[in-house]
Amino acid sequence: MTRPSPRTRMLLRFGIAPVAILLAGGMAWQASTAAFTAVTRSAGNSWSSGSVALTDDDLGVAAFTVTNLVPGQTGTKCLVVRSTATMVGEVRSYVSNLSTNGAALADHILFKIEPGTGGSFNSCTGFVASTTDTAVAISAAATARYDYATGGHPWTTTAAAGGETRSYRGTWTFDTTGMTQAQIDALQGSSITADLVWEFRSN
Length: 203
Description:
The protein is of the alpha+beta class. The chain has one domain (about 55-200). It has three helices and nine strands.
């Protein structure tokens, strides 16, 4: 067999190199596109806040509007508070925005709130108290229970479907026990205003 000349052997060497490069490139391309893949996802995630709503049945009218008070006079009014919150929480009651005009009438209006069931804003008929309460001067109540943190009569709500209610009975008395006639007369023409507040906070 005739051996290739030196020039032929050189051409063969240079001819093989591009083929080897092309083959190597083809193998790399194949390696970069051939792979196993898998995907999983949790789709449609969303976050929405709950809602709280607290109403009462007073129809926008003050529970107590009393004029021409006389010593010893007393009165009672009921109120139904309704929660339609979508999460559990706690309702507390307190006194805010106490304002006085004239003598210290707020020291002599004894007031108490009792939670329970039954009754309505128009009538306390059927009301049954769940706990008893001691009447205190409304000035003292406003000092002791003036915001949610200091509020009383805690009511734990359950986010019941359709809402849930609790009734409250408020009782006041114009008390002049132990006062002299001059002290009683000094209260004439005085007045007070205050807000009775029920506040809900979620747990």
